[in-house]
Amino acid sequence: MSGAVQPRDLLLELGTEELPPKALPVLSAALHAELRKRLGEARFAFSGSRAYASPRRLAVLVEGLAVTQSAQQVERRGPAKAAA
């Protein structure tokens, strides 16, 4: 049995007060774009995403989301020798 964890789907749903129907496409697209951007910045891989909207809800379904971040090697340098 493998120790690897399979990707999962994530549904982010925001309940709201009544939103104007004309604003739904813009609000939905903004939430979708921002979530995709933030997941990318945090190094979470996913296979796809879809946005949904209704007058009382905005939602994004992220498909195939990795449950862990991708590995990253970071090199940090300490203070100068003169300061030590």
Cross-sheet strand order for the largest sheet: 1-3-2
Distance between the termini: 50 Å
| Mean pLDDT reading | 91
Counting DSSP E segments of at least 2 residues, the number of strands comes to 3
Q: What is the 3D shape?
A: elongated
Describe this structure in words.
By secondary structure, this protein is α+β, with helices and mostly antiparallel strands. It has one domain (8-67). The protein has one helix and three strands, in the order E-H-E-E. It has a three-stranded antiparallel β-sheet with strand order 1-3-2, covered by helices on one side. Strand 2 and strand 3 form a beta hairpin. It starts with 7 loop residues before the first strand and ends in a 19-residue tail after the last strand. The mean pLDDT is 91.
Write out key terms for the chains shown.
single chain; 84 residues; alpha+beta; three-stranded antiparallel β-sheet; 1 helix; 29% strand
In short:
The chain is an alpha+beta fold and 84 residues long. The protein has 1 helix and 3 strands, in the order E-H-E-E. Strand 2 (48-54) and strand 3 (57-65) form a beta hairpin.
Topology:
Blueprint: E1 8-15, H1 24-41, E2 48-54, E3 57-65
Antiparallel strand pairs: 1-3, 2-3
